[in-house]
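Thread title: Can someone regenerate the structure for this chain?

I was given the following input by a collaborator and told the matching structure tokens would be attached. They weren't. Posting the sequence so someone can regenerate them.
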Amino acid sequence: MSYGLAMNGLPPDVLYAARDAGWAPGRRDAETIERLKGAHIPAEHPAFASLSEMGGLTFGETGSGEECAKSNVYFDLLTDGDENALRWAEILRTRLVGLAWTHNRHGQLFMAEDGRVFENSTVHDAFCFLGADLAEALTRLLRGQRARPMLRPDQSEVTLYGDTFTADDPNVYRWQR
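Best answer:
Regenerated them for you:
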């Protein structure tokens, strides 16, 4: 069975959570689409398709996960202009579009022009690679699998999950191409 862009590659447990929240193949949220157009998000940006499909849905739960806490996700176009996310957009040389709140609004999901998904903390100065696409990111969030922390050029370390990561740590996401 072929699903929409956002749902391709989801494991059954994550797919069932989305369905229970109201997602169905071919779903399009007209209000979200109008907001995307109003915010001048290009239809070619993968966040446009993902938010068109997932806009307004909330699913997942917080609690113990496989490697860290599981998260809930609320899909909404984020337009607050978070400073850390704006800095990362410049560093990554991409347009990051905010597409969801995570973990009871303690985090935000951003999608790059190539479809990669990042999480930005609203609690502390951390930005992480969550997945090569939305399916991988949602799987990590809903199952409680760790994201890969990222270091800005001006950072020598970052703390995430109670651990401190430095540039030589193999768990740090190598964003430089």
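Residues 83-92 form the longest helix (10 residues).
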